[in-house]
Design goal:
By secondary structure, the protein is an all-alpha fold. The protein has helices spanning about 1-25, 30-60, 60-80, 85-100, 105-110, 115-145, 155-160, 160-175, 185-205, 210-230, 240-245, 245-275, 280-300, 310-330, 330-360, 370-400, 410-440. The protein folds into three domains: about 1-180, Growth Hormone, Chain: A (Up-down Bundle); about 185-230; about 240-440, Growth Hormone, Chain: A (Up-down Bundle). The model has no long low-confidence stretch (mean pLDDT about 90).
Amino acid sequence: MLLATFMGLLDVSIVAVAVPSVQSGLGASFGEAQFVAAGYTLTYAVGLVTGGRLGDLHGRRRTFLVGVTLFILTSMACAVAPSAPVLIGARMLQGLAAAVMLPQVLSVIQSSFTGAVRAAALGCYGTTIGLASITGQIVGGALLAWNPMGLGWRSTFLVNVPIGLLAAVVGAVTVPESRGVRARLDLGGAGLLGLALTGLLLPPVLEWPAWGWPVLAAGAGLLVVFARYERRQASPLVPMRLLAQWPVRHGLFTVLAFYTGNAGFFLLLAYHLQAGLGLSPLGSGLAFAPLGTGFALTSLAAKRRTTLVPGTVLMAVSLAAVLGIVLAAPEGAQAHWLPAALAVSGLGEGLVAAPLIGTVLAGVGQDDTGAASGILLTATQIANAAGVALIGGVFAGTLGATPGTSGTSFSAYTHATAIATGAVLVLAVLTGILARALGSTR
């Protein structure tokens, strides 16, 4: 199951590196190339709660294997896509496959393990997240540089096939079957939630078009309608009893603050390393590697919520160090000094990620683990979109130009990176405050 987690998250970062090659290879417009990445994120986020509930209803092992199979097939469809519109369609279907596959991982961990063993399993899950996010950038850059069999960007999709086949074969033998509620899928709730999340996520993933604010407002309104609709359902898609639990409700706010800061930080740092310092995509990925390594190491060790606040302190210290390096270090030295600060950031993030998941899911009953996992993963995706929109907006607004375009000076990137890093630092402090309150009882 962790192989599937690795594959699903690898696909996000590995394709982000390949987007420029996709644009040139298919003769796509900039908007089409961006939607190759954004389409996956959108359908993945929209389908997560429904995917988690499908596992509760029809069996988590069965749903997991169906999701893995669909992910392999859609990855192959992406690899052979003859045009940008076909690739975008295949990517959106791939996102739906991931939404069926990935919530089952947390559901099985929650239903199969208890106590210290569950904490250890969540630590392994956190380690997998760290390794996948960094490996994607490195593997993506290496595949594009190597260009095996002249496949170019298509190899970044084909890499999913052997990983997925291994996950499917081993999963069919080893993953235990479990179910939750015995009821029909709430199709009305799934439709309302899908429309609401589309309205909330579409404007930021499309970089705020002119019609973005009305669509965002409509999404927020539909979310209110969805909540009222769910209260009247005998078998709701999202049981309101989940949101009535203090760890779930308050934990989701902590998740939003944590992942909003992380997503925004990764974006602005990627631009600073590549456009500001002139590193290649592979060089940028290697600069991120210490962060992923630190994340993986502490995720294995962090098993209790008592590490949440110390983790956010380490994050804040590392962000302050990044701020100092960006402002004070000469251009030629920054690429050498930043990895050390990023390693500390990774150590802190690893102390937060797995215990935060465990705290949110700790009191969830067996009937609702799929729904709760879907809600949790949806919150992370909303936070990722918000981080890109908010921190990316601060970065681009301060830069005074479209990030990545030629003609922008290094001093402009330095100033913009410093201001945006300050905003991420505020979010890290907010995460610490929320995490401290999460330990209280009500």
